[in-house]
Amino acid sequence: MSSAKESTGPSSSSSDEKHDAKHHHVVPTVVAEKEGAKLMEVKNADLAVALTSTQLDPLSRASIQLYLILVVAFMGSMSNGFDGQVMGAVNGMNQYLNYFGISGADAGGGVGTATALIFGIVSVIDRSIVGVLLAGPLTDGKFGRRGGMFIGATIILIGAITITTALDKPYLLGGRFVLGLGVSITATACPSYVVEMAPPQWRGRLTGLFNTFYYAGSMLCTGISIATARLSTTTSWRAPLAIQIVPAGILVSFVWFLPESPRWYVSAGKVDKAAEVLAKYHGNGDVNAPLVQLELKEFEESIKLDASDKRWWDYSELVNTSNARYRTLMMLMMGFFGQWSGNGLGYFLTVLFKNAGVESQERRLVLNFVNTIVSAIGASIGTSLCDTLGRRTMWFWGTFASASTLIIVTVCTALFGQNSANPDGANAAIAFIFLFGFVFSFAYTPLQALVPTECLANNTRAKGMAMYSLAVSCAGLVGNYAGPIALQNIGWKYYIVYVCWDIFECTMIWFFAVETRGRTLEELNEIFESPNPVKASLAKKKIAVVEKGGQVEVMHVENEIV
């Protein structure tokens, strides 16, 4: 099956094409012209016409203002990056391990039950049970997406201060509990806000960029860890932990200066305010722009202000129809696959490097930092291409490549790891650990924010993202709790578990993952209502359009082709 190619602007002239290609607009490809009409191959006829009529300048004042607005929301992802990587970095420091009496100094990093508890159990308790109960209602409530972001960031600040000043393990565990709760709330509110503020033609890249900021936090904390690890005092591990205060502080300071999500405005009955936001950032200031009117119409049609919407505890809309169940399946697939594709080993990279024969603590920390940079490059490239390659294609081949690189890491570590006289073989294992980080980040970093937010319906998005956080936390239990115990007992053989699971993931993605590129969030409803959502998501239409007096009209729509 072939997917529709994306053009970058109207095809009235070659100069226009070059201009709009620079601006990266997602507009259907003109495949032929007949009797003055342009024959286009598209997935969504209404959206195609709206995008052809409404061209956005990425360098306009409104667009730059939108980027700055979204950067504030990106701080939620950066906070998540700190939470995900800073413990992995300090876990490789003997100063931290000795201070808290954690085993693993000889293994290159903390392993065993104590590390499993710090990384796994606490995170699962607050992010799953408490987080899922609070995150959705807070984000859907009267304070909107901004309220969810503010509350989550405030809790992160409290948790970061607590773990930075920890004097013993219970103190540290308490801080981890609070910090994880805050991350769970921002992980629900921030991506929901980003996907709802982004124009449809830029949604893939801007939403994917949200998760890419994870690596901004990762690089900062792992880089600082290299320098502070040379200190013999507790500052060696307290300083990286303290840096987590920065992104949360930015989010708390600026979130109330942001406009609210237009979808939330419509759900709250404030249609005029929604139209104002859409006109400014999606319609070049024109409230009557075809794209603005299309979005408003679809928002109003899709939002269901029924009783279950008003009951904060009622999550039944995630499973009460076949449409909802398929959407939830897609969300859960990304939640579990995004944690079980081998990336869970990233928390214990210093242990992996030790297994590969790296004896120096400083070198292990440097390699950990380099891996973060390589992964960030992969994430950035993936983000730039997700609107071109499509979600389904990136997901499948990224998972397949992850399995392939992990196979090589496993073989090289088994043959040339510790106690091996072949440094080239050990270096090969390290190189493929880096390559795994690149291909995983290429596919999963943009898609982890994009797939669940696109697949969930508007009236269930906040609660659905809370359930997504639950799925991520439950999946994380396997890697974060079982991981250090398995690494202590069976070493590199633990990698084989992830290889086998990645192969299973590829099968599931091939048969069940839908393609969401080229659709409005509301139009996806038709796909999930279809008897075969995968086939429907890959279908295309041919429409004939003609420009009359500056207006674009649809002459006819041909049958769908697959």
From TrEMBL:
Gene3D superfamilies: MFS general substrate transporter like domains. It holds the Pfam family Sugar_tr. Keywords: Membrane, Transmembrane, Transmembrane helix, Transport. This is General substrate transporter. Belongs to the major facilitator superfamily. Sugar transporter (TC 2.A.1.1) family. Residues 1-14 have a biased composition (Low complexity). The keyword Secreted does not apply. It catalyses: myo-inositol(out) + H(+)(out) = myo-inositol(in) + H(+)(in). It is found in: Membrane. It comes from Lentinula lateritia. Residues 1-24 are annotated as: Disordered. The chain crosses the membrane at residues 66-90, 110-135, 147-167, 173-194, 206-229, 241-258, 329-353, 365-383, 395-416, 428-445, 465-483, 495-514. Its main location: membrane. Residues 69-517 form the Major facilitator superfamily (MFS) profile domain. It is a multi-pass membrane protein. SUPFAM superfamilies: MFS general substrate transporter. It comes from the Eukaryota. The keyword Signal does not apply.
